[in-house]
Description:
Elements: H1 2-24, H2 30-44, H3 54-60, H4 68-79, H5 82-85, H6 90-102, H7 113-128, H8 138-150, H9 160-165, H10 169-173, H11 179-192, H12 205-220, H13 227-240, H14 247-262, H15 270-294, H16 308-337, H17 344-368
Helix pairs in contact: 2-3, 4-6, 4-7, 7-8, 7-14, 8-12, 8-14, 11-12, 12-14, 13-14, 13-16, 16-17
Amino acid sequence: EQQKQLEQIHAHQIDQQIKQAKKKGYLLSPEESEKMRTRVDKVLSLFDTWEFDVLELANDCGKAGKYPLFIVGWCAIKSLGLIESLSLNSRLVRNFLLAAQKNHKSTNLYHNSVHVADVTRATYYFLSSTGLKKFLKPIEILAAILAAIVHDLDHPGFDNSFLIKTNDPKSGVYNDISINENYSLSLAFQLLSQPSLNLLSSLSQKNIAYVRHCMIRIVLSTDNAKHFQKLGEFKAMQMFGFSPDNDEHRILILETVVHCADVCNQAKPHESSLKWTNLVQNEFWEQGDKERELGFPIHRFFDRNSGDLAFALCQLSFIEFLVQPLFSAFQLFLQDQCPDFDCQPIEKCIDSNKKYWMDLVVFHQKILVPNSKK
Length: 374
């Protein structure tokens, strides 16, 4: 009864907001709305393909582009059948997605709701298109999607090392351990604690606790400081044999899926990959500018004055030491467990992007040392 009253109150608030929007001219005309819907539908037609680019949704779909995380999150949850299989309240799902959308800093060049929408869509793709979801429980699939949605919630635009160097209050709260990730999780659970946002309210307490456990494991595994540890655990699972009945094995899959989704820029088609690369690199440079202003040493990859060679080396190093080993392990697992999935398109994207940055490194090295031998 209390839940019904809350929903009625919320519905009344929505009606009032719509009336205010009409008065202020915020709502689209029917013609504008139809044009926007056509553009959105065209972009979303690729939602189940690796070629889907959330930047097109954010940049080319008018006012709808201001809500990429809401749109992608809703499409993922609906397409995976989670509302039906888990009896989720669709209104609470939409409320939570809107709250998540609003709790990302739009001023960040990279760590914003567009990046998070991209990670959420990639998580959906890896779960649905590969066939992995046949091994997973619906609550585990929900946990993975929610983890992707909240993994960078209210990200400050600076990495964990910067927060430690500047004695940010959050570094004290989380004892210098996965600061951004722990903070995002804390904020996510604060949102979910609100009755009007708690999309988990239809689940049993046991299942809520398990979703929470999975979300914590998954989000903390997106800290790149844990990359080699987590990659080692995933490879060990493959070596000794994957068991679908083993909870730990299934959680390792979820961790790997979201980690792959989080670092998949260099696994995208080349044109899309370059757009994302420029966004993240410019955010790195902004951190470097702040470090220079504060008198801190600057890593060459965060120093905009390091030049084009450092820029190319940064991307090449990221591919060689993180992206390629991670995706190679993931693809080996998929070949064993989901042989019908074709890994080659993603593999070709990684190889193509690696060659591009390698060629740029060689080119800029020759400029710096004209007579250098190959």
